[in-house]
Amino acid sequence: MKIPETTSDLSSSIDIMLVHLIATSRRPVSRTDLANITGLSKMAVGNHVSTLLKKGILSQEESRANPNGSLGRHPVYLKLSSTSPCILGVLIKRNYCQAVLTNISGEIIDMEKILFPQSLTAESLLALLFKMTDSIISHSQRQIIGCGISCIGPINNITGCILNPPDFYGIENLPIVSAFEEHTGLSTYLVQDANAGGLAEKLYGRGIPYDDFMYLHIENGIGLSFILNGSLFTGFSGQSGEIGHTSINFNGPKCTCGNTGCLELYANLNQMQDKISQLLPIFKESPFHKIKNPDWNQILSLASDKDPIAIAALDEFCGYLAHALANVLTLLDFSTIIVGYNYDHGSDIIEKMLGTRLRHFLRSSSEDIKILHSQLGGNAPLIGSAAIVANEVFQQRLWKI
After folding, report:
1. Closest by CA position to 213, among listed 233, 224, 228, 199
2. Are 238 and 388 spatial neighbours (Cβ–Cβ below 8 Å)?
3. 13-31 burial, b if ≥16 CB within 10 A, otherwise e?
């Protein structure tokens, strides 16, 4: 934490600390709660809260009931105000981009999405991104304190460049941070999408109670991020966690990244569809006979309903994942993995399959490994684009109250 140099700096530091606690709490927070957590006197907390209320950063509401049914005055809880500053987030995937406006709690205020045309250049990408962000900014009258960009990798967060993502229209070495700062006038931060998802889980999701965990994101590609001692570890230049482009077969096919036998060549939707096609003649009553090119959600849904073909395809997918994860766990010895992907029906079948596979590969230590489903689901990298800015606020490197 930055050491305050003046009384004004100390006051701002305390204000941000209180905002941080309220913004990332999973339950209602009262003034008494803040005093107990921080060790500040109730009077000091009250004075700072009054300032934050006057500035329109916080608001308050009285609970309708007392905790545990006790008598007396109902507690007054604090939350971010509807006029509090917000964050602009941008997510760049292979086929689309999204812009989001959130408050510092990661709650989505507004969102837009644009699909990429088949022909995309660096110039047209920037034009689409600026059109989208200009639109979303125009919808809000609230102060915007920064912009975060969550992007497929590899990226370099020191130079602020998108480097050379595989299968991304040939776009290379795009200085997206400087372009956004010039266009928006906002301090802008670039983060790889899986790293963004891991940070979002730490600040707002399933990772809140854990100081150390891995976040695994599954979508068109596979990414990994590391939370160490409560902070996101991105490596020297933001390229850590590219597990999808680690080799699980040195004699395997050539990947578009230039490596051979990459995980993503084996653990992907096309491979699952091929497995399903191979098994269709054996299971003549399977619902897959009526589904052409089943998508991710259909496979997960049928696997959750115990369809044998779906289970076989998903188990093979998880087997490849578990091989790669076992290598990482052998080196880094995490006890918690949070898995994020798009699926809205509450199934944890992937987590269970990964657990079974990892128990087989890591016989000595796997019993203590927790594999948890993401609280933010497929939205974690999107919310993470805002979380990277919120984290700068909470670390007192941006936005002085």
Report:
1. 228
2. no
3. bbbbbbbbbbbbbeeebbb
